[in-house]
Amino acid sequence: MAGPINQARAKISKIFNGEPQSYTRFNLAQNTDGDNSHVEVKLSGDGEEEMDGTEAGHHGASNTYTQKPLHNYKKVCYIALAILIFFLAGYLIGYVTHRKTDAGKLPGSEGVSCTSVQPDKGKDEGEIVVPEPTLDWSDITSMLQRLLTSDDFDKKLSEFAMDKHEAGSANDEGLATKILNIFKGLEMTPWYDEHYVHGNRNKVFFDSEAIGQPTGYLAYSATGTVLGKVVYANYGQIEDLKYLQDVGMDLLQSVALIRAGKISLAEKVANAAKYGAAAVLIYPEHANDFDGSTELYGHVHFGTGDPYTPGFPSFNHTQFPPAKSSGLPKILAQTITADMALKIHTKMGGKAAPDGFQGNLRGISRYFLGSDNDLVNVTVNNVLTDTKITNVFGVIKGFVDPDRYVVIGAQRDSFGKGYAKSTVGTCLLVELARAITQMKKEGFVPRRSIVFASWSAGDYGNVGATEWLEGYLASLDKKAFTYISLDGAVVGMSTFHILTLNTQPSFFYFTLYSLEEPMKMQDGAYPFLAFSGIPSISFRFSDTTSSDYKFYGTDLDNKENLDIATQQRLRDYCVSAAQVAGQMALRLVHDHILRLDVTSYSRLIRKHVASINGQVIQLTHVSAGNLNSPLKSQWLITAAGSYGRAASSLLNDIQNSELKDDEMSRNINDRIMRVEHNLLSPYVSPREVPFRHIFFGTGNFTVSALIDHLKNPKKEDDDLLRNQFALTTWTIQGCANDLAGDVWALDNLI
């Protein structure tokens, strides 16, 4: 256990020892007392609390005054009368406000909607009670450490493990009810929402009886029958398909045979479609881990959410427009077993596959790319159905800013057993809810709220989470300031991974310089940032250099294999994962200022602007004739400078402000919260382009698209190129303006 925990401690300690803007150091340390190993998060010094940068200036100050006598008795009466009237007015306002709040309750929500969290009330109607914090950070971390135990995780893992709990099934609904009752017992004013989404099942028939008929399937595949030559395409990555093209292998109307791994199933199918394939067959290939008959399940929607209601929430009775997601494949896709793939491979001829394409299927010494005579007939029959899914929520309400919250979420469903994929994350969710609820009873006073979310239909492409985001898009980006995903948090033990969308230092202080890999579209946290502009993070303990788990999507994602991967220490690693997630969340709701780093985007923006400017300079000297008029990047450079100055100004405001002034802290935090959301392009529709982030989205509005376009511009695309420049410039400038704060503080030189 010491390996990954010490690794995490060293990485995250390095973050804060080397980052001057961070407020504290965030270290992970292993507890070696007994068997209950865990992750402990410590701050610099011995329980050092956050400093607002202003206290030193107040020491030694003397406030003296001389009290003047009252010479007029009537003045006393007038003052008393004014105070009485003021008190009565305040009482009436508070009473009316409370009545309006009660009138707005959602059925079954016990007064808490998914976009409104109310503070605790005192005995008198309308009186908000804000207790004085009595615990410092070291007390808080010690309390969390005491309340998260290996024995409790043992019980929860046994309680929540199921053989089958596909989204919308009776078992999935049973788990939802169980979690709802747990949240009720913890007095977390739980609620739930329901969505009606579309799903399908596939069946495949091959011409040759020797191939077989798989029971695994890929949701959202196109339907029909295809007869075509089979081409072996390795992992289906763009570089694999480009290699085939370079050696003369024509994929047009072919059946691409692809092994699982490296990238998502949906991305494999999307890539094959770009190169003209008519169908895709995907098989698992781990000779030492899989039985040859192991079935593979998944989905091929290159996106998240219900692909038949893009941009709209799938609430019951919603008038769905006749639309489909652009990420739905137009070609057939199906999984097959390793035994079926072996039968196809042994019949293939043509050119020998390169060394990088060779695999480890038993009984075959060399893979071939295929010939025109290697024909396969594939039939996919889908049955599209409406399925009710349920998301379950609970809240631990804050005392100062209860309408600002961090969301902790976990996928609940699975195509198969999903032990690592969903069971562990669900146990982490309910145990963190129990522990933090108890902490509040023992004196912990959170400034902000924590929302706990159990999602359904995660295996269909984060459908439950995305539909919730679509349903409350207008308010979530102003209130939810962070999402922490618990999906797949423990899949091994030798390495500690942190996943973000950014390949540069993250928006989170506690992940700076410790990135293992970029977040992928199938990650549970992806839609929160790329769709809603909410800073998001995933993490996990793993056994490989990649955080992918080889048993995902199969019935081998079970307790036995995860016990082997963790050397029978699963419950201890669950405690470690809960400590990591819990202390992230607690720090975010405890401090006066949100621990999110706006300066990380200064570095990312400068990097991209430098790349764009270099392309513009090269374009001016080499291929200026490809444009109707010269292109200049000065306004983009100015916008980047505006963001950098706004970020520096914010840090200066933090250092020179009385942060214990709640209104001042709230104003600063609002500026921090809006950064990620303001990097969603305002010039494209979320219905047409769900992932609107200019750095992490997909489409012509992104910075990467602009850079690619500059490498090979054409005269007929001149207007498109200049529009891309304008969109990028004004998105960054708008983000800088909002970060600067008040309108009179703007640095708008464009």
Automatic annotation (TrEMBL):
Biased segments, Basic and acidic residues type: 35-45
Record bears the keyword Membrane: yes
Keywords, ordered alphabetically: Membrane, Transmembrane, Transmembrane helix
Location of the PA domain: 228-291
Domain Transferrin receptor-like dimerisation: 636-739
Chain positions covered by the region annotation Disordered: 28-64, 107-126
Gene3D superfamilies to which the protein is assigned, alphabetical: 3.50.30.30, Transferrin receptor-like, dimerisation domain, Zn peptidases
Domain Peptidase M28: 391-522
Membrane-spanning segments: 76-96
Topology with respect to the bilayer: Single-pass type II membrane protein
Main location: membrane
SUPFAM superfamilies documented for this protein: PA domain, Transferrin receptor-like dimerisation domain, Zn-dependent exopeptidases
Any Gene Ontology biological process: iron ion transport
Localization of this protein: Cell membrane
Record's GO cellular component terms: external side of plasma membrane
Family named by the database record: Belongs to the peptidase M28 family. M28B subfamily.
Name of the protein in question: Transferrin receptor 1b
